[in-house]
Amino acid sequence: MNGPSVADLGLLIPELILTGMALVLILVARRAQGTALPVVGTVMAAVGAAVAAWWVLSSEPQSAFAGLITIDGYAQFFKVLVAAALALVALLSVKGLEGKGVPRSEYHVLLLLASTGMMLTVSAVDMVTFYLGLELITLCSYILVGITVDRPKSNEAAIKYFLLASFASALMLFGISLTYGLTGTTSFSGVAAAIAERGLADHPLQLAALALIASGLAFKIAAVPFHAWAPDAYQGASTPVAAFLASGSKAAGLAAVGRVGLIAFGADAPALSTILVGLAALSVALGSVLALAQTEMKRLLAYSSIAHVGYALMGLIAGTPEGASATMTYAFFYVFMTLGTFGVVIGLGARGATVDGYQGLAAQRPGLAAVMLLFLLALTGIPLTSGFVAKFIVISSAVGAGYVVLAVLAVVCSVVSAFVYMRIAVLMYMKDPEAPMPARLPVALCVALAVAVIVTLVGGVLPGLVTPWAVAP
Amino acid sequence: MSDYPVLTVTTFLPLAGALLLFFASARFARWIALAVSLATIAISAPLYTDFDKGSSALQFVESVDWIPDWNLVYGMGVDGISIPFIALATLLTVLCVGVSWVAVKTRVREFYAALLVAETAMIGLFAATNLFVFFVFWELIVIPIFLLIGVWGGPRRVYSAMKFLLFTLAGSVLMLVGLITLYTTCDTLDFRELAKAAIDPDHQVWLFAAFLAAFAVKVPMIPVHTWLPDAHTEAPTAGSVILAGVLLKMGAYGFLRISLPILPEGAAFFVEPMLVLSVVAIVYGAYMTLAQTDIKRLIAYSSVGHMGFVTLGIFTLKQGGVEGAILQMINHGIVSAALFLCVGMIYERTHTREIKDYGGVARTAPVYCVFLTLFCLAAAGFPGLNSFVGEFLVVQGAFATENWLGAMAIWGVALGTVYMVWLYYRVVMGKLNPGLEGMKLELGVREVVTLAPLAILAVCLGVYPELVLSYLHEPVKALLGVAP
Fold first, then answer.
1. Is A1 part of any domain?
2. CB contact (8 A) between residue A468 and residue B142
3. Nearest residue of B to residue A465, measured between CA atoms
4. Contact at 8 Å (CB) between A420 and A381?
5. Domain count, chain A
6. Cβ of A263: how many Cβ atoms within 10 Å?
7. Within a domain: A417
8. Where are the domains of chain B?
9. What is the ipTM of this complex?
């Protein structure tokens, strides 16, 4: 392994684009406050980063910075996904932050930096970069959750999130240090080799390390029983921030779980599978059931995201590359459908915040209601939407690994969640409107919704366009 | 053979029509729906003219790689069992447009769009040659029907729509697990290849149970039938027609397409419980009708009984029984759809479905009563009309299996006569109910044209059942060749 060279920087072009834009926005923050520059800049940076991740680096897998990061199909896939999530969230923020007194430039800087962290995380092949990436995401997220400083709820959510997340990070760091102590290395492949060579798979300390790292990661993706922060944070945060947590953060977290699970602890398969089965089963069941009782949209979507993370984890249980690509596909489609749903929530303004606000929407805005129905069907997993394809492959992967009971639990929970989502459809289509007509949607929001609709529909009908890119590490 | 992919075009033409409706003005919505549904029949014509009845093989086969990475194929094709169902689905959609012509006044575009999406799902389901495609259409139909019931239905529509949705989804997700298990063990979902695959008999029992969950809800079999009376009663007329006419057949069709050929050992394991549940449905459904005061609810419960005949016939696993069951499905599709149309037409005028609010209708609406007489007699299994032949074949098959099954089925037939004639008596005969005084109950030309095709079919199939049966002989022979 050679030391870092300038050429290695070439592999970080997507990250550099995002960071560069963040620096520019900081420099011009004061002048750009009231203008469209932050949004336009963020979207352009995101598109540039996606293109860079896709084309410029689409060569053989290569590692850089003395084996701290790697650029492979897995990293590229998630980088594009993160960039897409960033662009859509930036578009959603145009309306989502209206009148909230949020400093626009700083807000977008934080989005950009968090996305940089996500990109680092998904390409990390060393515990150190891995941890750094995750912490960059979390640090930015704390501030984003609390960025509406004059709302007490937002502050409360930020503090709760901060306390719990620091605890989780500490756990993970402790797990990493245990692994380092046992194996003498921090690189994923080194850890795997040491575990295999010295027969550490059943070592109690190694199992403890695995459990600690898994807990820390489960916290990041809000899998049960490490989910308790999510509903409060989503509710307290402004809606675009909640959308960002539910989409980009989740995708990056899942990518992290996938890479650590498959590369570093692949030899630990039985223990890891047990942990993942537990997390998946609990998340799917509790997420679906608790969503039933919610009357606030953001809390409902928080529980929905918990359930969805459970489904996504089902792909990783098998510990096979096919399973990992199932999870990748799930993450991809999930990001667009959940961002679409948040987009409708934002588009309806104050009315969209509660479940009752959707009453009679189909009579007032048939198009918007149809779009929302599509996302709800996708979240439920009805065929010809991407949600069905996603569920189909992760459940196939679990059944293929022999976890039929888990599969049955998952599909039964999807019926429960159907009640959750279709309740909104019932309100939209089968009740008469009481609230006044919602205002017209701004163009930026329409663009974001259109992208989400297209991915959800095309992904449902022709998933073959996405699946070839979802290659496991 | 024609030079376009008949099945794909037939299946997706209604969907294209539904999309077109979103861009059309509400004034033209019903005309567009009518044109699209008629065009669908026209374009499906080769299915009837070019079909070879002497073969049990799939015809009009189309096969395209859908998701190559997962070895999933978009496969369409029909055999003699599918053809009558496709005919029924396309015909009933046109009649649904006809009956909704003036009855639907709110959100007209959405109504016809939902109807056309449902048509796509129905045709696609009966044309699928692949479990994945089958499942996609199976789930796809739930949404438009859910909306039809919930948006345009009666007073308790939301409750009924939700109940329908949750019951069907609960069944179908278990089918999804069954489907995925088949997929991971056999690595194909093609019906023909699955039928050839050697599946472990123990697995077959579980798989049969998983598919049974989905099919039993749709048929519906006792004890998962409770969504049906609510859904049928609250749905708008067109919704009831689609539900009774086609949707209920999807479950029984699933038995024929999946459970029997692919899981013969599983079917053998479950034969007796299925037969018992079938006769329970026949007798229980018939008794429940006697207690109903709402006409639509009465017809809904009669559907439970009639579908009991269908499952009874299928699980006799005899040529006559299975053919009778399929014929019974078509007949029930014609007769129950016709009865729901009749009820819907008079409901538009009186706005009541309570039997006690009627009486003496014959005095003011003779033409209406001619149709009602015909359809009531057909539903009661009157010889010379269509239902008689199907029920006769099923009962014959039941007697050949077990005498007591046949006896119970006969009991059901007898009760069927009682409740249909009693309903007819209360609605049509006697003095005119004072509440109907001064109402114009007679049918208009549009309504006569809507009912006429079903009346003609009821008579034709009663006199010459070979019209449908001739399609069935070969495929049923092939089906029972592999069934136990």
1. no
2. no
3. B67
4. no
5. 1
6. 18
7. yes
8. 6-482
9. 0.91
